[in-house]
Amino acid sequence: MTTSNYFNLVDSKFLSISGQDRGNFLQDLITNDIHKCDSKNSIYSCLLNPQGKFIADFFIIDYENSYLIETHKKFVNDLINKLKIYKLRAKVEINNVNDLLSLSIIENNDLLQLEKDITLFKDPRNDELGNKIFVSKNKFKELEKKYNLIEDNFGKYRKLLIKNLIPYSSEDLIQNKSLLLENNFNKINAIDWEKGCYVGQEITARMKYRALLKKSIRVVEIISGNVRRGNQINFNQNKVGEIISSFNKLAIAMMKIEETKSIFLNKQILKTESAILKIIY
User: Fold this and answer.
1) Range(s) of the domain holding residue 252
2) φ, ψ for residue 215 (rounded to 5)?
3) Which of 122, 142, 163 is the last residue of a domain?
4) For a FRET experiment, which of 10, 98, 202, 237 has its CA 20 to 30 Å from that of 157?
5) Does 43 share its domain with 141?
């Protein structure tokens, strides 16, 4: 029997948006195009504040005459509260969904595609992340046994995100402060540049089209020593960046774009107070 390892995304929370205005309601708020979303294809998107700063990221899929949204537990209350503020007279209902689990399965398992009791879709952020699965809590044990699913160490999932320059938003971003373009969201299919206006769109578009971006995240390798969040990264005693998160010998760092171009091309060494680093992507 084929074995598939999965990551259990235990910190995921779900809510549903139903009602006849649900599509237009979300389209006016989120960074991606809701019309790309159907029952087999999810979109990854964000809600921003009017200044273009990050509030929450989430996956959306069309599910039983509603839009099902998966977000991190850290963001769920703020997300619901913001959606209710924007609701006004729109004919939508916003409800918590408490009976679902979220899994990530990197290896392809063709048999799972045929399972009727799950919602399975390709992770829209990056092909390397495989498939995501939503399954009811009372069906999961049956599914786990039926398809010989084995839970893998969540640290491997974090490493996979770092290798592909994908922020783990609950730890890597700061609500009402972080900017999407600084954090690579334009390259992980979170923003649709052709859709109409959404909350924070003007600031986000201005940064892109007027080349206002001064810093962005990169993947760095820890050659020796250890790092922690907030460590200053120096080159020739000048600050060029800061550690955002790390796992084993890899880290995501927020780096000054102009200052680090030649450092990356020439494979030069960077330092923190307790580590030696190099940029690998």
Assistant:
1) 214-281
2) -145, 160
3) 163
4) 98
5) yes
Domain membership flag for residue 178: no
Residue 202 counted as domain residue: no
Q: Specify whether 148 is located in the same domain as 39.
A: yes
Q: Show Cβ contacts of residue 28 under 8 Å, excluding neighbours closer than 6 positions.
A: 86, 196, 197, 198, 199
Please state, in angstroms and rounded to a whole number, the distance separating the CA atoms of residues 45 and 58.
Answer: 6
Cβ neighbours for 29, distance < 8 A, ≥ 6 positions apart: 47, 83, 86, 198, 199
Q: Is the pTM of this model over 0.85?
A: yes
Q: Walk along the chain (281 residues) and give the pLDDT tens digit of each residue.
A: 567 899 999 999 999 999 999 999 999 999 999 999 999 999 999 999 999 999 999 999 999 899 999 999 999 999 999 999 999 999 999 999 999 999 999 877 666 777 888 999 999 999 999 999 999 999 999 988 988 899 999 999 999 999 999 999 999 999 999 999 999 999 999 999 999 899 999 999 999 888 889 999 999 999 999 999 999 999 999 999 999 999 999 999 999 999 999 999 999 999 999 999 999 99
Residues 219 and 151 in one domain: no
Q: What is the largest CA-CA distance in the chain?
A: 59
Residues 157 and 218 in one domain: no
Residues 170-216: tens digit of each pLDDT: 999 999 999 999 999 999 999 999 998 999 999 999 998 888 899 99
